[in-house]
Amino acid sequence: MKRRRRILARLTLALAALPGAAATAGATPGPSARLALEPCEVPGVAGKLRCGELAVYENRAARSGRQIRLKILVLPATGSHVAADPLVFLEGGPGESATEDAAGLAAGLAKIRERRDILLVDQRGTGGSHPLNCVLFEPAGDLQSSLGEFLPLAAARRCRPALEKNADLTQYTTPIATDDLDEVRAALGYEKLNLYGVSYGTRAALVYLRRHGRRVRTVTLVGVSPTDQQMPLYFPRDTERALNGVLDECASRAPCRAAFPDAKNDLRAVIDQLKQGTVPVEVVNPESGEASTVRLSRDVAAETLRYMLYSPAFAGQVPAFLRAAATGDFVPLAEAALFFRQHLVASGSMGLYLSITCAEDLPGIDPREAERLAEGTALGDYRYTEQRAACEVWPRASLPVGYRRPVHSRVPVLIFSGAWDPVTPPEYGRAVAQSLSRSLHIVVPHGGHGFEGLKGAECVDRLAADFIERGTTTGLDTRCVASIERPPFLARAPALRPISMTRAELEPFVGSYASKEPPSEATIEFAQGHLRLIRPDSPAAILLPVSPTRLRVADEPFTALQFELESGRVRRVVLEEGGAPQITLQPKR
Length: 589
Fold this sequence. Notes:
Structural class: alpha+beta
Strand content: 15-25%
Number of strands: 19
CATH architecture of the domain at 7-15 and 37-131 and 173-231 and 408-483: 3-Layer(aba) Sandwich
Helix content: 25-40%
Strand order of the largest sheet: 1-2-3-5-4-6-7-10-11
Radius of gyration: 23 Å
């Protein structure tokens, strides 16, 4: 499902990185611990953490030959009464690094962390655990290369022999990774774990539950990927369902209906035009801040809409993006396409993505069924045809007998599905819940693959924290779910074309800014002819004026800074994501 990272959370939390209260306590390793972790620090996370590595056999069945090292990070519990069973966060992708998301998880799981350690283990093939990284889009810096094939066949052919110099690509599957995790658990002396999986991480959680169920206290699943999902077979169907759901919600609201009286017709018009051939679009080169022309295809445009549906904050812009494109302005859609390709698709470990999906998903897909399901949809079958071609040149691992069968368990499981999730729709959650006798499935209204941007989305976090603390779904008060609302749809596509301003006109924006709630900081300075945004734990980004008081981030078309000036000086600055205010910062004096 290529979720890759919780995009909106990553963008917002990149500014929310001032140290908070230091950790006051932390669980000590269990009595049977045989792995000692060392104190360490991670930018954006307050207090001392614990870091280490565990060597495991690459070929676990042979228990001989090459060993690989698994990167481990523990965020100690912050409270004084610490439970013995930690929470293990299982990342999406497949291919994402859990430890690289430590700062965002420390904030997002703060309530759970009051009582429990947060255990992060980079799955084999990702992050700091013998990563299987491939360069997808070449030549580097060429924007058009990022808007080509989702899985370039040439890249797969180059990547395989390069990785095979130091890796057996048949040893990187979900069952093997879950056995690694259990070895980490035993080495740290934990008797039981609380599993928290998102996207592909839900599949890993289910496989761990099947293979090591007696070591599991609770399981929380967000956006369920069953073991029989067969990515990307149903992507066209599920994207169509989510697109129609979001556009129907637009039509049901007077302001959105007035702004976009026939959004579905706009969608058809955009797809029909792109079926005739690519369109030239002038976009901003995020590396230089200068204008560059690219050609946008139907496949990439449709995939971009699918990615926008992942987050309600982005989904609320879909009608505006479609109207702009239908009236000839493809800039917002092309800029979003570049963003998702460079920040989502090209991130993480593509080698692991191929090793897992080529073994666990593609083999069961009937090409004729893939073609049938894609017929008449916006997305079409390009994802399947490209992935099938890449898998034909990739080694295929074997799987345990019965791998794709439903997972049965009496362990308490809390399941969340977004109503308009384009990749793991609610039907997957319902299906998985049928064989988990102590499970509760909650469909989050207006939700996508994640819930960022929804009003009342903190309800999900509270329910998860309450469930994990109590260890049962029985009696869980879910009434807050009914109060979750979608924010207003964006009335027009964001202004993305830079305007000309002199250095003197831009000078008032230079300075340092901070916010107390949430704790945030940012610095704006001149460098190499442009304003640049400096954020903790993020690369410097070019800022470009799109109005006299508004600056967009060059490589993040959804992100902008709106300034309020008073007597020529900045009074405050509002960070906006998808047109909605997220953080208000004041100038440091």
